[in-house]
Every structure is written in C-alpha cells, then in structure tokens.
TrEMBL record:
Name this polypeptide is given: TOG domain-containing protein
Subcellular localization(s) per the UniProt record: Cytoplasm, Cytoskeleton, Microtubule organizing center, Spindle pole body
Ranges of compositional bias, category Basic and acidic residues: 484-493
Organism encoding this protein: Monilinia fructicola
Biased composition (Low complexity): 500-510, 772-788
Domain TOG, chain residue ranges per copy: 1-234, 256-490
GO-annotated biological processes: attachment of mitotic spindle microtubules to kinetochore; establishment or maintenance of microtubule cytoskeleton polarity; meiotic centromere clustering; microtubule polymerization; mitotic spindle elongation
Length: 842
C-alpha cells in the first residue's frame, strides 16, 4: 500500500482529481488546497490546470464519497480565496449547481460551511447577480432540504454583503414561494430571510411581496419585525474585491475619504431612531442613542440637516434617567467634534438644555455634560456662547452655577480670540458677583475668571474692573493671573503702546530742545494769541505748557503727517496742542460704539445663517421630493406596462377559452348527431331484417306447393337418383338445406351491405339460381352459390335448353323478381339515409 500511495502522489493533480479510488481523490484535494495557500499571487502556475479544465471542480464538489467531497469543496474555497476574478468566472457555471444540491444539503456540518463559504467567495470575487441567478431555480426543487438550504444561503449572502451590494429585487419577487412551501423548515428559513431584508430595507421591502402572504403569516412577520426595530442599522461585513481595492486606494481618515464616507451618514442613522427616542422605556431610548453614537463617532462629518437629531438630543437632556442624559451628551460631543464649524447653527438649540442639566451631582454625568459643552464651544466661539453662559451664572441652583463658571474658565483658557471690551465688562461683573457667594467653590471660581481675563487683557485694562474690591480678593485674583495659561492673542495691548512714549521723552528732548528753542519766541507768541481766542474751557493746557510745551509738541509734530493731509498749517503748534485732548477724548466714544454695532451684526448674521439653513433644507426637501416623484413615476410606468401585459395575456386566455368551448360544443353536437344516426340505422337494419325474413318465408312457401305435382318427363326419378347418389339425402332434405343456405347467404349479404354502404346487394351476393334442386345440372352449375348472377333471360334460356319444366321455370322467374324488388327497395332506403346524413351535416 505504501508503494501504491507513493505512485499515486506522483501523479499530476488533475489525474488524481479524476481517480477512481476515493482516497486518492481525497488526498489530491488536500494537496491542492495546500499548494493554493502557498502561492505568491493569483498568476501562479499551480492554478493553470484548473483554469484550463474547470470541469475538474464539478467532480470535486459533487464527489460521491462524502469525506472526499468535504475536502474537495475546501480545495475549491482555497482556489477562490487565493485566486482572482478569472478563477471565479471560469468555474462558476460548473460548480454552483453542485454546491447547492450536494454541498448545502450535505449531512456534514463542515461540508455545509465550506459550500456556503464558496458561494460567498464567488460573490466577493466578481458580483452577486450570477450567483443569485443560479440559486433562484433551486427554490423550486422537489426536495425540501435543498430548498431550505438555498434560502439559508441567500440569507447569509445578504447578511454579509448587504442589500446595497446585492440587489434584493430578484429574491423579493420569488419570496412568497418558500413562504407557501409545505415543509416547515423551508418556511422557517423564508422567515429568516424576510427578517434579514427588514434589517436592511425596513418598510421598503413590503410592497414587493407582502400582499402574497397569508394574514397569519403577515402577523407572524410583524412580530418578528418588532424584535429587530430597536437594533442599529446593519453594516456590510464582507466586501467585494473591487470594494476592497477602492478602500485601499482611499485617503487616510480625516482626509477626503472620511468626508466621502460621512456623506451617507443620514442614511446610516436607524430609521426608527426617533420612535425609539420617544419610547417610554429608558433602555430603548439609551439603545437608540448608543446606535446614534456609533454612527457619529467618526473623525469628520459632512454638513447636512441634523436639526431633528439635535432637537432630539436636546430633549434627552431633560430625561429623568441619567444614563440617557450621559449618552445624549456623548452624542452631542462627537457630533460637534465631527461637524466643527457646521455645528454653529445648532448651538442655540443644545447649549441651554446642557447647562440646565449641570445640576446633576454625579461626576460621570457632569463630566459628560462638560465635555459636550467644550466641543460646542470649540465648534463656535466665545462671543456666541457668552450670552447664555452669563445668564446661567445667575441661576439659583449652585450646581448649575458651578458647572457654568467652570465651563467659562475652560472657554477663556482655550479661546484664540480675545473678548471685546463690552464682553470683558459683562464677564467681570458676573465674576464679581460670584465673589460674594456663600460657597467657597464659587468664590474661588469667580476669582479665577477675573484672573484669567486679566491674563488675556492685561493688568492695566482690568484695573477699572477691579476697583472697589478689597485687597484679599485682589490678591486672590493676582494669584490666578500669575498661574493662568491662555491661548488668546493679546489684541488690547496696542492701545497702551502710546503711553510708553510718554516716559521716553527724557531722551528725546536732546534733539527736540534745540529746534524748538530757535523758534520758541515766535512759536510761543502765536500759540498764545491763538490759545486766547478759543473759549476759556481750555485753560489747563496753557498752564501745563511752560514745562511740557516743548516735549508735547514733539510727538505731535512727529505724528503730524496725517493732519497736514487734512489741510492744517505747519506753524500752528499751539492749536495742535489744544486739539490733542479733544482727539484723545473722541476715541473712547468711538470705541464704545462698536459693541452695539457688533452685537447687531452678530444677530443679523445668526438670523441670516438660520435663513440660509432653512433655504438649504427646503432645497434638499425639494430635491428629495423630485427624486421621489421621478421614482414613483417610473414605478407607475412599470406598473402600467405590467398591467397592459396582464390585460393582453388575459384577453388571449379568454379568446383561447372561448375557442375551446366552441370546439367542445361542436364536438358534442357531432357526437349527438352520430348517435342519433346510429340509432336510426339500427332501427332501419332491424326493419330490413324483418322484411327480408318475410320475403324468404314467402319465397320458400311458393315452390313447396308446386313440388308435389306429378311427372316432369321422368326427371324426378332421375333427379332423385342423382341426388341420392350425389348428396346421400332425400329430395326434401336437399330442399331444406338449400333454403337454409340461401337464407344465411342473404342475411350475411344484407349485413355487409349496411356496413359498406353499397347498393349492389342483389347483384353481387345472391346465388345465381334459386330454382328447386330437381334440376341436377342447374344445381351443379350453381356451385356454392357465390358465382355472379346471370340475367333472367339467360337463365330462362338455359333452363329451356336443359328441359326444365314450365312450373320450375316460372318459380325461378318469380324468385328473381322478388330479389330485384328487395334490392331496389334497399337501394332506395340507403340513398334516403345518405341524403338525410348529408342534410344533417350541413
């Protein structure tokens, strides 16, 4: 045996695949699978023999030995797994039928699993349509186990690849067939397939087959659907090779690929999300939010209409169950993180509910709410969030105050744009109120807010806001100022810059003193005169001018280039000194005016943004409605075509039925006519038989009365002698025999005439001589009575030559006349019947 095994292993794999010994085939399948697994690519020469002769796989899949079949299907799976698209397309037509009939219905679990895997690989390597086409005919198989296995395979295909990759319409059209199967296992598998379709299509699947189900089946299916309504939307578990290649070429997460993936985000949200969110059971609400979190937890989300979802999340912030609140806060966090600036339009909807829920003392809830607020702030700005934040700092609940002030501190630390002076004033006033709170946490948080603002704006800018605070609080604020870390750019610092040159004039006078001293006499006289002309309101500048008149004009002269453009004279130094305070006093007024304008602009921007969102939403709805209308129009047209086809088929069927009914009526009429004719012919036949019998009796009685007449030239004795010698019977016996034979001949002839429809009864079938048997020559000439009859003249001449008696001659003539009359009567009857038959046919 060892030598034989070595010989078998030396054979090529194709020869071993077809070997008559099942163990050799089994070993060949195992060796082939191992060789396929170690191939470097799909172009390896190991695959070539099986590509050139794909029929080898048909024998392997349908191997008569179950052990060998198991390894054969496993080898096919390896062939497909490590092969390419060519391996699929060349072998698919040879193996799919055997996989369904022999593999899926096998009693071995490993064989079933390998057969199913082979079907999934056939889908993965190319497309699903050819595989589905091969599986659908198996739904009509006569063996229930094959039908059930086929339905289970379809369920696995749609479960792994989804209804977006595999078209569900061909299967939905034939789905009522397994539902109506007599086997309960087939119906159970059909239910599983329908549930799988419902996971992907939801209510969209029902119009395809729902009307073909029985009411009880519809009720059972609705119960099954209720169980999976709360499940998240299914995801494709296996991908086609083409999809895998596309994903490998896609950019890394965070780039365009993430945006392309997120374009289909709204379709991934469970269809029953809002229904579950409104459920009375908190677990269902939490499960809905968990499913939404799974969809939202992506690096980037493309902007879309998330208004309903955000409103639902805002409603969840008021939920009595903290688990639901926590999960909703996490959803807000990931949504704001994914949308980024696109989340701005939803801030006003979600910020207040989150802050209102900050009253929860549980750390996990407050942390989740804080993280959600941080992402909302990151997606918006301090200016947008500040108004509601300031309002909640006045909340009566200390927990809400504490959470809000912490959020404000985090916002000030992370903002990259410094607040405006008006915003600084609002924050400072709110923070100073917190310093008077009874809670140490709030007092400390208020000081931290002021210290952080001071870090952003600077000590000098915050000085006016800290007036009226005691030294202890100022010290606390100073500590937070020194430790605070901020990211905002210090924009308020440029205004204090002009103050620095005021301390620098100490070095400047060396240059500037020489120039003004040369012109001091003339220069000071004109400003003095000019300074007296204006009203006495500006008396202070002249008093300070003796010492600072020289340094102060210097910066004015250095900054003078802009004024000359306005047409001011070069020598009016005193007037510039008088106007300088006015120009310095004007900027604060102008600086205070922008905040209202800025506030109005923000409101207008927000309103404009809302209007734009409404417009975009309406445009999207219009596009969706147009698409829906086009889809419905196409469905209507398709239904019209189907209706026309059905009407045509119905008309054709009705015409065919009417034609068949007409043929049936005609056939029945013909049958009735034939039966009536047969009955009439039978009656006529019986009547003719009776007439013939009467005629025979009449013909037999007339010769019997003439026979006893004496003497016929001694012929009687001779005839008697002749008959005695010839027949061995007396004359009477010969006459009786003659009559019986003649009756039998005439009866049979009449029957044949009625059967054949001929009118030659008397001429063809009657015996030529009906005269008595006394004439020996006449009897001899007549023979057996089947000869053609001679005319009466010929018969009479022959009888006269032979010396027959006159009475005998007369009797023969009368017999012939009666026969002729009977014949003519029969012919007339037959012609009359034929005429009636023709009339009935027409």
């Amino acid at each position: 045996m060892a030598e034989q095994e070595e010989d078998f292993s030396s054979l090529p794999l194709p020869d071993r695949f077809q070997h008559k010994i099942w163990k050799v085939r089994k070993a060949a399948y195992e060796d082939a699978a191992k060789q396929f697994e170690i191939t470097p690519d799909e172009h390896d020469p190991v695959f070539r023999p099986f590509l050139n002769d794909p029929g080898l796989w048909k024998g392997a899949v349908a191997d008569s030995n179950v052990a060998a079949q198991q390894d054969g299907i496993a080898a096919l799976c390896a062939f497909l797994k490590f092969g390419g698209r060519e391996h699929c397309t060349r072998t698919r037509s040879h193996t799919l039928t055997s996989l369904v009939e022999k593999g899926l219905s096998s009693t071995r679990a490993a064989t079933k699993a390998s057969a199913l895997e082979a079907l999934l690989l056939y889908v993965e390597l190319d497309v699903a349509a050819p595989v589905i086409e091969e599986l659908l005919p198996a739904l009509s198989h006569k063996q229930p186990k094959i039908v059930a296995a086929t339905v289970a395979a379809l369920t696995a295909i749609y479960h792994n690849y989804g209804c977006k990759t595999v078209d569900p319409k061909p299967v939905l059209k034939v789905l009522p067939k397994p539902f109506g199967h007599a086997d309960k296992n087939v119906r159970a598998e059909a239910t599983n397939l329908a549930v799988e379709f419902y996971r992907w299509l939801r209510e969209a699947m029902k119009p395809m087959f729902w009307g073909d189900l029985k009411p009880t089946q519809q009720t059972d299916m609705e119960a099954q659907f209720e169980k999976i309504k709360g499940e998240p939307a299914p995801k494709q578990e296996r991908f086609l090779r083409s999809q895998q290649a596309a994903m490998s070429r896609a950019p890394p997460p965070g780039e365009g690929g993430a945006e392309e993936e997120d374009e289909m985000f709204l379709s991934k949200v469970p269809a029953n999300f809002h229904e579950q969110l409104a459920s009375s059971k908190w677990k269902e609400r939490k499960e809905a939010l968990e499913a939404l979190y799974t969809c939202l937890n992506v690096p980037r989300i493309k902007d879309a209409d998330f208004g309903l979802i955000v409103h639902g999340l805002a409603k969840c912030m008021k939920d009595a169950n903290i688990a639901v609140v926590t999960q909703a806060a996490q959803c807000v966090e990931v949504l704001a993180q994914g949308l980024r600036k696109g989340f701005t339009k939803y801030r006003s909807v979600i910020q207040s509910p989150i802050m209102e829920r900050l009253k929860e003392k549980k750390a996990s809830v407050s942390d989740a709410l804080g993280a959600a607020l941080d992402q909302v702030f990151a997606a918006t700005s301090l200016t947008e969030c500040l108004e509601e934040t300031i309002e909640f700092l006045k909340h009566k609940n200390p927990q809400v105050k504490e959470g809000t002030v912490k959020f404000l501190i985090r916002s000030l630390r992370t903002t990259r744009e410094a607040p405006s002076k008006a915003e600084v004033g609002q924050i400072s006033e709110a923070a100073k109120k917190l310093l008077a709170e009874s809670s140490e946490v709030l007092r400390s948080s208020g000081a931290e807010v002021l210290g952080t603002i001071m870090k952003i704006m600077g000590e000098r800018a915050m000085g006016p806001h800290l007036e009226g605070l005691d030294d202890i609080r100022k010290t606390k604020i100073k500590e937070f100022f020194e430790t605070a870390e901020v990211k905002a750019k210090d924009k308020p610092k440029p205004p204090p810059a002009p103050v620095a040159p005021k301390a620098a004039p100490a070095a400047a006078p060396k240059k500037m003193v020489k120039k003004p001293t040369a012109r001091s006499a003339a220069g000071l006289k004109k400003p003095a005169g000019l300074g007296l002309k204006p009203p006495g309101k500006k008396v202070a500048p002249p008093l300070a001018s003796p010492k600072r008149a020289i340094p102060s004009p210097v910066p004015v002269e250095e900054e003078a280039p802009p004024p000359p453009r306005a047409g001011l004279g070069r020598g009016l130094a005193g007037r510039s000194l008088a106007k300088a305070p006015a120009t310095n006093a004007a900027p604060p007024v102008s600086s205070m005016s922008p905040p209202p304008n800025a506030g109005l602009t923000a409101l207008e921007k927000a309103e404009l943004e809302e209007l734009r969102l409404d417009k975009d939403r309406l445009l999207r709805q219009a596009d969706e409605l147009r698409q829906e209308r086009s889809r419905l129009n196409s469905e209507i047209q398709e239904l019209k075509n189907q209706n026309a086809q059905l009407i045509e088929d119905h008309t054709r069927d009705v015409l065919s039925i009417k034609a068949k009914e007409t043929q049936l009526v005609r056939s029945r009429a013909d049958a009735e006519t034939a039966e009536a004719m047969c009955a009439q012919l039978r009656r006529e036949q019986n009547r003719l038989k009776h007439a013939l019998s009467a005629a025979e009796r009449a013909s037999n009685h007339s010769p019997s009365r003439e026979l006893p007449s004496p003497g016929r030239d001694g012929a009687h004795g001779e005839a008697g002698t002749y008959r005695d010698s010839m027949y061995g019977a007396p004359l009477d016996g010969g006459r009786q025999d003659y009559r019986s034979r003649a009756r039998m001949s005439m009866t049979s002839s009449i029957g044949e005439e009625f059967q054949n429809g001929t009118g030659a009864y008397g001429r063809n079938m009657l015996s030529p001589d009906l005269e008595p048997a006394s004439n020996g020559r006449s009897s001899a000439a007549s023979g057996s009575g089947r000869a053609s009859p001679a005319p009466p003249s010929y018969t009479s001449e022959r009888m006269s030559r032979t010396g027959g008696t006159a009475s005998g001659n007369g009797t023969g003539v009368e017999s012939w006349k009666r026969a002729a009359e009977v014949t003519s009567a029969l012919k007339a009857k037959i012609e009359l019947m034929k005429a009636r038959q023709n009339i009935s046919k027409h």
